[in-house]
Design brief:
Strand content: 15-25%
Structural class: mainly beta
Number of strands: 6
Largest sheet: 2 strands, antiparallel
Radius of gyration: 15 Å
Oligomer: single chain
Helix content: under 10%
Order of helices and strands: EEEEEEH
Number of helices: 1
Number of domains: 1
Length: 79
């Protein structure tokens, strides 16, 4: 596992695009097994922040957001 404290090391993480909290590739713990569970959750096991389907091609209703990959700027810029 890469050490994210070292300088000049690119260590991307997945984050929730709304609250910028780190996300994990595990379904939320509060969702029942029979539901169409999302694939990602916050580090504490809660679902990612809600997306209320405002785009025309999205599903109707409330669904958790999809995480985005975050790369710290200092990992990409030369010193």
């Amino acid at each position: 596992m890469p050490d994210r404290t070292k300088t000049r090391q690119c260590a991307p993480v997945m984050i929730c695009p709304d609250c910028t909290e780190e996300a994990r590739n595990i379904a939320p713990t509060a969702w029942a097994l029979a539901w169409n569970r999302p694939d990602y959750s916050h580090r504490d096991g809660t679902e990612l922040c809600p997306d209320y389907g405002t785009s025309p091609d999205s599903e109707k209703g409330r669904r958790p957001l999809q995480p985005v990959v975050f790369v710290p700027l200092e990992a990409l810029t030369p010193v």
